[in-house]
Design a protein that fits this description.
Blueprint: H1 2-24, H2 30-53, H3 57-64
């Protein structure tokens, strides 16, 4: 499960970097902004799905004790 968190983090960082690059440079294709936004939203979507799936894991550990 830790591996998916790393992938989500990398997607968010790469998407943010593309968006920052597209904002900071003058003559950039608008596709950089679109691709950056899609990548960052994919990373956020995957991260929130992971958080929802594992939100009650700590309660299971307390019940076993």
């Amino acid at each position: 499960m830790k591996n998916s968190q790393v992938v989500n983090t990398i997607l968010i960082i790469v998407g943010g970097a593309l968006l920052l690059y597209a904002i900071s440079v003058e003559d950039v294709s608008p596709y950089f902004k679109i691709v950056g936004l899609i990548i960052i939203m994919l990373g956020l979507y995957r991260a929130t799905n992971y958080w929802v799936a594992t939100k009650d894991d700590h309660q299971d550990n307390n019940e076993e004790l």
